[in-house]
Every structure is written in structure tokens, then in C-alpha cells.
Amino acid sequence: MARKPNQSPERGDARTRLLEAARDIIRQKGFAATSVDDLCRSAGVTKGAFFHHFKTKEALGVAAAAFWSQTTGALFSAASYHAPEDPLERILAYLEFRRSIIGGETFEYTCLVGTMTQEVHATAHPIRDACAESIFGHAATLEPDISAAMRLHGITADWTAESLARHTQAVLQGAFILAKAAGNAELARESLDHLIRYVRLLFGQTAAL
Amino acid sequence: MARKPNQSPERGDARTRLLEAARDIIRQKGFAATSVDDLCRSAGVTKGAFFHHFKTKEALGVAAAAFWSQTTGALFSAASYHAPEDPLERILAYLEFRRSIIGGETFEYTCLVGTMTQEVHATAHPIRDACAESIFGHAATLEPDISAAMRLHGITADWTAESLARHTQAVLQGAFILAKAAGNAELARESLDHLIRYVRLLFGQTAAL
DNA sequence: AACAATACCGACCGTATGGTATGTGTCAAT
DNA sequence: ATTGACACATACCATACGGTCGGTATTGTT
Hints:
Two copies of one chain form a homodimer. By secondary structure, chain A is mainly α. The first copy, chain A, has a single domain (57-203), classed as Tetracycline Repressor, domain 2 (Orthogonal Bundle), CATH 1.10.357. Helix content of chain A is 69%, strand content 0%. Chain A is built from eleven helices and no strands. Chain A has helices spanning 14-29, 36-43, 47-53, 57-78, 87-100, 106-109, 112-119, 126-140, 143-152, 161-182, 185-202. Residues 1-9 of chain A have low confidence and may be disordered. The structure holds a DNA duplex.
């Protein structure tokens, strides 16, 4: 029997399938515990394909972080939380949106780059740099709304829009850790509730939820 | 030359030295990326000693989490934040204390069990269970003060002391992730500031910091 | 002193891992 | 029709890894 190469899954998408596999498996097992063979098996490709697209495993990590930035960036920019006219309402809608997508299996709602950051955070580590860009890049998208809300509500505070934007991401990341520890997504939502209450209090609303 | 076994470091402390090495190295590289040889080298012991004290590498992970609970538990129970008479002041003093010990190299102030949780959070994983016990056990030590403060300040809220205690730990864990991503401890302190402001607002104080 | 238990050493083993070298099928341009 | 670039596949390699094993000091007990 002559060779029957694997071309049932469309040819040319091995790279994407590897990145999707990385996104899911690394969120379950972490970067170091995820082997190249794991990724190839899950993506349905061979090692040759892997190292054709990525020079090293580390290069895949960097690419996975970039892939994460792109896909989640598209998700967020298309989401409806940008609709309200009041910038504070947009912020609260963002947080509600983040809360609403927490559920199902842990690896389905937690953050890839947050997970990888925990493992590889030596200074000047390329994966860490890619993760940092993803996290802080996303945080930066919140700043305009926060600044606008501060102006509109006449807030003169000892905190900055930048710091609050980063804090929202810190709460999200920490919420994921507690949810992972307990194996319970509800714990993540619980912290999101506290964050939403905090933002309301900051802008002078009483803590009605 | 006859054999000259390693007995300059006092005999009998190999286990402790391995746990200390695990505490430091796992916080730098993560659990999976930390090899048994790494630990032995850092602790100045041999593999024989390692597997004499720990049946498997996973068993060391569990023991390291327990060791972490014990040592940090002793640190916290001896700390001076318990002194104030007003329970709210004790809570704020706790958060200030947590803030004050953030500094230096990343691996010196971040949380071992938070780091390990990110990697091994399959259900029924013994390391994850040990990490969860450490995190939620510590959170539980805050509940009495929060409950007392709620009573004293006449707070009837839609949140519980338990959930706020957990939220403080979520913020801490998330603050560590951002600090790791940026390689900057200041980012962790920044989130702690927001958390302190939140607690003040919750208990009716204005956000003076 | 004899003995047993404990703590530790260091060589060794099987396997899994990241990575390489080479080959093969596909497609587009010439 | 030929060529060359690309996207894979297959077989293979060197090493690093977790773990084992037989042995040797040291300590406590009787």
C-alpha cells in the first residue's frame, strides 16, 4: 500500500491547528508540562510540521501568546459592551461581559498568557515579553473609557485610569487562580462582583448590584 | 582517599533544605520546569536523599505546599497586624502588611501555591488540593475580623465576609501575575492600593489613602 | 558492644523529550 | 514539462528526566 498522507484536514492549516492546540492544552497543563508530542497529537500533525512552522518550542510559546492577543482582541472589539454612551456604563458593561464568559471547564475561560506568565517570567524571556504585551495591551484598551468616565463624573483622585485598567486585569487573573484552585468557576465570578462593586463605589454610585 | 560524605551541613536537614529549594526554584521556574536534579543541586544533596524523603516529585510538590502553609502561617500569626482593637483596622493593617512585604526579586515575594495552582489544576490532583487548602485556609483566617467589622459598622450587604476574604487573595494572586509579567513589583503594590481603597469604601470611609 | 533504624550517597536504568535530517507530495510560475 | 518553493511526513538522535538500587555512615536503643 502506497503512502496515504494526512490531507483530510485541509492542507495549510497545521500552524493554526497547532496554535489552537497550544491555547487549550497549555491552559490545562501549563507550558512546561505540555510536550511537543502532546501538541502534535492534539493538532493531528507530525513533528515535522511542528518544527517546520516553529523553530523551537519556545517560538511556539511566543506565537501562541500573539495568537491569543489577536483572537481575544477580535472578540473584545466586536463585543457589545462598547455600545453605551456613558463611558462608565461601558466600563461596567465590559466587566459584566468578562463575568458572563466565565463558565464551563477551567481551561475554557482562563487566560493563556496569564498562565504562561506564571511559569516563564525571567527577565528578557521572549515568552514573558509576549505575555506582558498581551496583558497590558488589553488593559490599555480600557483606559480611554476610564479617563472619559473620570472627566464626566468629575473624579479627581489619587489613582489613575492606567492603574485602574491594570487592576481590573489583576483581579481577573487572580480570580482565575482561585477558580482553578477550587475547581469552581463561581469563585471567579465572585471576585468579579467585588470588582464591579468597587468601580461603582469609585464613581460615587452606592453599591447596589 | 576514602569517601568523604557531605556532612558539613548538619545531617538531618536534607528534607528541609529540599523544601526550601523547592519554595525558591518553583517560584522562579514553575513546578514542571523544575527538575529533581535542580532541587538536589540547589539543596546540596543527592538524588538518593531526595527519594528517601519524597516518594515522587509530585509528593515533594504536596510537601512544599504544606511547608508553605506552615511557614507563611507562622509569619502571619506572629505579625503585628492583629494588634488594633477595631477589626476594620486589623483588616487594613493586614493589607498594609501584605503590601509592605512586596519587593525585591519576583520569586521572593510571590506565592508558591498560587504559582503551582496555575500548572496543576486537574480535578483531584493532590498538588492542587494542597494548594487550595493553603490559599483558602489563609483566606479563612481573615473572616473573623471581616465579620466583626461588618457587625461593628452595621454593614448589611449583598456580600459575605467569606467572599471578601477570598477576594483579597484573588487580588494578591493577580497582582503577582502582573508584577511578574512586567518584572516590576510596583504593579503589585498598585493593585493592593486599589484593594485597600475598596475595603475602605465598603466600610463607609471615603477613599483617603 | 551489638543491633536496628534512619539518613544519605552515587551509580545506573528506561523512557520521554526537544530537535534534526531527509524525503515526498502539492501547487504556482515559467 | 520543468523547476522551485512550500507544507508537510517519517525516521532517527542525543540528552535530560524521573525513578531505582545496593551500599555506607550516623544515631539511638538495649
